[in-house]
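Chapter review. Work through the record for DUF1571 domain-containing protein before attempting the end-of-chapter questions.
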Amino acid sequence: MLLLVLVAMSTSIEEDPVAAALARIDALQGYRLTLRSQGSGGEEVIRYSYRRPGYVRMDMETPYRGAVLIYRPDTGKVQLWPFGGPGSRPGLSLRPTNRMVRSSRGHRVDQSDVGTLLRNVQQLQQHGHARLLEPTTLDERSAQHVVVEAEPGRAVHEVARYDLWLDEETLFPLRVISYDRRGERFESVHLEDVELDPAFPPDHFAP
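Structure tokens for DUF1571 domain-containing protein:
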């Protein structure tokens, strides 16, 4: 943990904004937030929780209000409660690749954390470049606007450009917009009500 903290401190946003943000994320034990995603499949609103080394809980608000998904890295399985959370009735045990627990855009629960997102951005950066634009304000929070764009004809998971808005203080993403090779918007994700290293209830990720 000390090594991660030192890396986070030594990597400046001016040198490499994506690496700096990823170092901050990797130094966290967990976080929770409200995720609002808009794309061709409509809008998804999820209360999202993450704890190292990969525990994920999703409480769905839209479109399947009341559904709960929990992924546990110790079992490699996703527990799904379509009509109520844990304790209401036994959940379905599914693989992360199962279509029932993948988003409308094919995202997997076990690959849904912010660290994975930033690693995808970093992979795209390796085939292009990153630009740090002028600081701005997003939802009354000071933010750094970063653009990562691939070389012509290159893409990662169909994405050829990312626009990221990183919190000025924590470098945690507040908004991420992705574009395809044609320059058309692929997906827009807002990360709201972010809590870093929260105290989760003991049974929060329990099956």
